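Quick illustration for those who missed Monday's session on complexes.
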Amino acid sequence: MEPLIKIEHMYKIYNPGDDEVRALDDVSMEIQRGELTAIIGHSGSGKSTLMNMLGCLDIPTSGKYFLNGKDVFSMTDNQLSDIRNQEIGFIFQGFNLIANLDALGNVELPLIYRGIDKKTRQELSREALRMVGLEPRIHHKPSEMSGGQQQRVAVARAIAAKPPIILADEPTGNLDSHSTEEILQILKGLHEAGRTVIIITHDPDIASQTDRVVQIKDGKIEKDYWNEKE
Ligand code: ADP
Ligand code: MG
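Prediction with magnesium ion bound:
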């Protein structure tokens, strides 16, 4: 079967010329369906740039990206936004919740954009909040929750529509170790349920708990290896 994700010779060059930054410098990689992968590297190594490419949020200077065998960078903006809505659940370091909506409202919002009816939206949202252990707090606003709880709302929002791919950029970057562990367990559970999960992190402890680690440095893949199974 063809890989879920296939990237070929991808470059992203900012400020071309004398002080150019090669945020991605000839990256080629494949990710199969159902993998749990960490993309790891120091700050400035190109992780978020790569995540933005994988998530169809940005286009490279050159290179190819096939998602499910389809050539992403030849798609129209509408096709790209359909892919983002239907295939990918995004989780960011900063939670990105809407302050005046409660947990349920935040999780429901992207389902509104997908045109899902209210009853189904509420069912999916409650189910997602239950999965992250937040059912008792569905009517709490972000300001009434801890950072770890807010990130669990963001995870629920990412998974409510059951996208096959979960992309998380430093999802635990703002969290204490207890909340980090909770988020990691949820992401592992999603992987066990068959999703393809990609976690971008600079934390080696997190990378040690995934199946595969892709290490990037100065925009290049420096190492790509599988963790030993426990
Ligand atoms: P990471 O997520 O690993 O910290 P990034 O992908 O954010 O790294 O950044 C990789 C490199 O690209 C860094 O040197 C960063 O300064 C540079 N960079 C990122 N975005 C831009 C931009 N919009 N304009 C110019 N340089 C950028
Ligand atoms: Mg980053």
